[in-house]
Design a protein that fits this description.
Length: about 170
Amino acid sequence: MSGRKIASAAVQNRTQTPFWNWIRNKLLAVDRQKITPPPGLPTADGKAVYHNPLRFPNTQTTRSPDPPALPGGVHHKLADNYYLGRDGRRSVKAPVALYAGEEKGASKYAAIDGTPMEKPAVSANKGPEQNFGLEAPTPGFGYEWKRTISEELSTQQGDGELRRLERFDRYLKA
């Protein structure tokens, strides 16, 4: 690589003629009246500054960034780089069926590795006590939790407002 490339500092940025600059500044309210505050944050002289949205080479970063330093993978080995081993499409397997319905109305459940299970692996969201023993995660949004006042901090245990709100806590009644 021939080093970093950047435009010369002698390059002039494009702009309009002074007449069109004056029209643009009037329409964009860059030069405002003394009684009107400037748009945005005022500069030291109290005026607003027009920022040209065009990008020019001398205002941008270099065009030759450093090459990325990526760690080598299976494709970077010189030997023992067999095509079938590095082809990602060959490592894809069919999804394992966790549930299979039968004609008689009974259903079969299987673990992630395919071994049959006696109890269902996918069930309704019952809470951490019943779901953490399953091999498959429970689908859905929730995490049902139980709350007891004895496990709260001392500030919550003595709070009268929380005591009043306990009437509406559906987890306390269960």
